[in-house]
Amino acid sequence: MAEYKIKDLETLTGIKAHTLRVWEKRYGLLSPARTETKIRSYSDEDLVKLLNIAILYDSGLKISKIAECSEGEIRTQVREICDTTHTFSAVVSLLIQSMVEIDYDTFERVITKTIEKEGLEVVYKNYLVSFLNRIGVLWVVGTISPVQEHFVSNIIRQKIIVETDKLPNVEKRRFDAVLFTPEGEFHEISLLYYNYILKKRNYRTLYLGVNLPIGDLKNSIPTMNPKNLIVSMIANISESYYKDYMDQLLEQVNLPIFLGGGMIDSYGLPKSERVFPIQDWIGN
């Protein structure tokens, strides 16, 4: 069982910590444990309950009315809301709740229904980015377990692959882009999404996946003959490692490089006329 601080709940639910304290005091919605230094500590059950409360609250129900409901009544109302509408709050909250409970059926159903209704591109931009950013913060501090992270990552990965396979074949020609992650980088959701978007826009891509050594890439460039490279870097690495890797890549491969992932936000783009943010190509 995980233990969450009030700031973790704020991150996952979008409800401000101050508001949570007021709700606890005024309505008794949650009864957190406390450490010896009086710091609040919340359980998985507290988080799931609050996620459901957030869905009802965002749908227009007053918090005083929600406080009068039993947990069973809250869950019933949440199901009714989610069956009739796919608001941002409901989708993201249900995904987080399903992750916490490792509820495959709900997680898969919510993603599938939302993709069917709005399409993968909209779902990724409007829902999954926010969801992944929220759980990413907790992954760094160790609140989320590797099991939970792998559980959600693999379902999202499968969905992107399925939607990519539905796209029509691009005419055979020189590859517009080769996509990969560096050696030691195993996060590929962003990379899979870039591949999907490019194929959707009729670019011919070669997806090489994760953990690709620079030497192997260099040796295969003459055979692949791509126009561009697309690299995704998500893992929490040092700035020096990031710069050293990009220096090596620029030295070994004389091609334009489009870079995606959290490293751009953390450390910026390398100073090179051959490196561009992936948004320059696929948009935000």
3D structure, described in words:
With 284 residues, this protein is an alpha/beta fold. 60% of the residues lie in helices and 10% in strands. A 5-stranded parallel β-sheet has the order 4-3-5-6-7, sandwiched between helices. The longest helix has 22 residues, at 120-141. The radius of gyration is 22 Å and the shape is elongated.
Question: How would you summarize what this structure contains?
Answer:
With 284 residues, this protein is α/β, with parallel strands linked by helices. The protein is 60% helix and 10% strand. The protein has helices at residues 6-13, 17-27, 44-58, 63-67, 71-84, 88-101, 104-118, 120-141, 146-165, 189-200, 214-224, 239-252, 262-267, 279-282; strands at residues 33-34, 40-41, 177-182, 205-212, 229-232, 257-260, 275-277.
Strand order of the largest sheet: 4-3-5-6-7
Judging from the principal axes of the Cα atoms, what is the shape? Answer: elongated
The major sheet is characterized as: 5 strands, parallel
**CATH architecture assignment name of the largest domain:** Orthogonal Bundle
Range of helix content: 55-70%
Could you tell me the number of beta strands?
A: 7
Q: Calculate Rg over CA atoms.
A: 22 Å
Q: In CATH, what is the class of the largest domain?
A: Mainly Alpha
Separation, N- and C-terminal Cα atoms: 37 Å
The secondary-structure class comes to alpha/beta
Oligomeric state of the chains present here:
single chain
- Which regions have little confidence, pLDDT < 50, spanning 5+ residues? none
**What is the name of the CATH topology of the largest domain?**
Multidrug-efflux Transporter Regulator, Chain: A, Domain 2
H and E string: HHEEHHHHHHHEHEHEHEHEH
The tally of structural domains comes to 2
* Average of per-residue pLDDT values: 90
The DSSP helix count reads 14
Strand proportion, as a percent range, falls in: 5-15%
